[in-house]
Write a structure and sequence with these properties.
The protein is of the alpha/beta class and about 350 residues long. About 30% of the residues lie in helices and about 15% in strands. The protein has ten helices and 15 strands. A hairpin with a 2-residue loop joins strand 5 and strand 6. The radius of gyration is 19 Å and the shape is globular. The two termini are about 30 Å apart.
Length: about 350
């Protein structure tokens, strides 16, 4: 990556460069060390030019915070760029940088890439080791590459990926495996295609209309196409339980001291975690085991699942989050991202590519 400018997401520590996590509590925080991902990129010759904006603590797929304000969609400044890697997606779309790092728990690499017409790749847990981390075995949150093309994403992944002995779930394969050709013959590739996970999620009419032509495109490539989707029963509960648990662990002590300086949705998520019982965690773990079994059987039949990244188009930048999709009320600030976080709990990689 020698000579390529890069900006790092403001959730990763950068030695000597202010790292705020989008929070006024950390507005003047300057780390004394780099995160592993920053260290690897720097050693590969990438030149750090700054940080990319995030929602407060990366919570929610809408990039605004009290420190730097809102990051706007470069195609329409009245709309959101998504999040939480929103600043990264906008910097790429505007041509400010050619490559960027990001992270993803509920869709934070995929949603802003989708909203800004670039590429975001949610990697398999452990593909890009996360260090330092309070929960190095935690499989829901990952780090990964963003760029304007799939080729550039693969280039970046060569540097990001590879094992680290401090991270117990890190994958042993070296990053060099992503240096190979991306060309492949899609004749007889088995593809499941669904615009709404077969009725399991509400999807905005504009999204359906835009993505409907994907089916004939895939067929023209030679794919064997079927309308199908895995049974994502209990995925919502699984994700919300483990997300809340992690929020309580990570931000609970901070909320005790600085609640008045924290976004209400972050406090709500912390409180959800603080009320969890051991049996609720156990039930979510049991549900996830069953879900993984169903998904495994599904992918015995198919090579790929093609679906919308986000359930809605980019919305008003002044609106904190979506409250309703096609007449269905969203119960929480993250429900409108089920199309992303249902995939998260499977542990499978997922890429957002421009279409439409």
């Amino acid at each position: 990556l020698h000579g390529l400018p890069i900006a790092h997401k403001d959730l990763v520590s950068t030695k000597g460069i202010r790292t705020t996590f989008g929070s006024p509590i950390h507005a003047d925080h300057v780390p004394d060390c780099d995160s592993l991902i920053v260290e690897r990129l720097r050693q590969a010759g990438a030149i750090t030019v700054g940080k990319t904006n995030v929602p407060e603590f990366g919570a929610g797929s809408q990039t605004f915070n009290p420190v730097f304000g809102a990051t706007r969609n470069p195609y329409d400044l009245t709309r959101t760029c998504g999040g939480s890697s929103g600043g990264a997606a906008v910097a790429l779309a505007c041509g400010m940088i050619p490559i960027a790092d990001g992270s993803d728990m509920g869709g934070s690499l995929r949603n802003p890439a989708n909203f800004c017409n670039v590429v975001g790749f949610r990697t398999s847990p452990g593909r890009v080791p996360i260090w330092p981390s309070e929960t190095p075995w935690f499989p829901l949150g990952v780090q990964g590459p963003m760029a304007r093309t799939v080729e550039d994403v693969a280039l970046l992944l060569q540097v990001m990926a590879g094992p680290d002995p401090r991270v117990p779930i890190s994958i042993e394969q070296p990053g060099e495996m992503f240096a190979g050709s991306l060309q492949r013959d899609f004749q007889q590739a088995r593809v499941a295609f669904s615009l709404d996970l077969e009725g399991q999620i509400p999807v905005h009419a504009d999204v359906r209309e835009t993505l409907a032509p994907a089916a004939p495109v895939l067929a023209a490539l030679g794919c064997e196409l079927e309308q199908d989707a895995p049974d994502f029963r209990d995925a919502d509960n699984i994700f919300k339980v483990f997300r809340a648990w992690r929020f309580a662990m990570k931000y609970g002590p901070l909320m005790e001291k600085h609640r008045e300086q924290m976004k209400e949705t972050v406090c709500w998520n912390v409180e959800q975690g603080l009320t969890l019982t051991g049996m609720q965690l156990a039930e979510a773990a049991r549900q996830r085991s069953l879900l993984l079994g169903r998904v495994h059987r599904f992918f015995q039949k198919y090579d790929f699942l093609v679906m919308p990244v986000s359930q809605v188009p980019p919305f008003d930048v002044e609106q904190p989050y979506i409250e309703e999709v096609e007449g269905v009320s969203m119960e929480t600030y993250i429900d409108w991202m089920q199309s992303c976080y249902f995939v998260t709990v499977t542990g499978l990689p997922a890429i957002s590519v421009p279409f439409g």
